[in-house]
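User: Hey, quick favor. My workstation is busy. Could you predict this chain's structure for me?
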Amino acid sequence: MREKFRVWAESLETFALEVIFGERRDTKAVLLRAILFGSSKVFQVGVKMRRWLYNVRILRDKTLGVQVIAIGNLTVGGTGKTPSRPVWSRYQSACWPSLNATLPLAIVPGRAN
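Assistant: No problem, here it is.
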């Protein structure tokens, strides 16, 4: 069963990549390309609507009431964000001794450490 699923998943991935890169032109490829294009337009409208709601202040930013340091672009990996967390924690402790009563908190999605 696992082998059948693996073969199916690989063939589906190959098909999707061929469609995305324009290497396939059959009916299934045209249909998938149309679905992907339509989905991207729906997503685009949703993002623009959300941005507009923030601009006209229907949706508002929320403050946390504590200092927040965001380290790097969360979508880009391999830039050394995780090893830099302890450095920033020590920096915070050294520069703002009055905050030592509170412990620095690091939220790292997808990590067990």
